[in-house]
Amino acid sequence: MARLGAACALALLCPDLSAAQSREDALEPPTGEVVLALRGNISRTNREGRAVFDEAMLAALPATVLETTTVVTDGVKRFDGFLMRDLLDHVGAVGETVTATALNDYVIDIPMEDFERFDVLVATHMDGQRLLPSDKGPLWIVYPRDDHAELQDIRYDYRWVWQLIELDVK
């Protein structure tokens, strides 16, 4: 009974406890130019129901390196960035599909399962050079195609979104 009384007193003193709790779960706002936005079924946001990131925020995610070939470059390339699953976990994403949108309005649905099965990278650098919008940047979804024969299928090639600007979790 004492616990119930304490809970009621706390509710009276803090009527907006859930709002305070959600503020604690909110992402910090970006201080630089926004380079990526996430929306849809995410639980952590920082701008009107979306999660927006500048380069510094993305650089704070665990770094990953991937060496692989691509269908649009010659030879094996080294990609630096972060795993898509780490980004999705960071924003509390839940769903079956992620719709990726590029600067040129290219849009494709990618099964969330891809990000659990494979170490799909969101690359910020290729061969040590920062990816720029003039050459597939600032962000490029890269699959570890040399590590899995099934990823050398054209269905996966369509999921390599360069000039990535938005993800919508459904």
Adjacency order of strands in the biggest sheet? 2-1-10-5-6
Principal-axes shape call: globular
The percent range for strand residues is 25-35%
Query: Strand pairing plus helix content: what structural class?
Result: alpha+beta
What is this entry, summarized?
This protein is an alpha+beta fold. The chain has a single domain (2-169), classed as Alpha-Beta Complex (Sulfite Oxidase, Chain A, domain 2), CATH 3.90.420.10.
Q: Descriptors for this entry?
A:
single chain; alpha+beta; Sulfite Oxidase, Chain A, domain 2; 5-stranded mixed β-sheet; 6 helices; disordered N terminus
Q: Could you describe the 3D structure shown?
A:
This protein has one domain (2-169): Sulfite Oxidase, Chain A, domain 2, CATH 3.90.420.10. The protein has a 5-stranded mixed sheet with strand order 2-1-10-5-6. Strands 3, 4, 7, 8 and 9 form a 5-stranded antiparallel sheet that branches. The protein is 25% helix and 31% strand. By secondary structure, it is α+β, with helices and mostly antiparallel strands. The protein contains 6 helices and 10 strands. A hairpin with an 8-residue loop joins strand 3 (63-68) and strand 4.
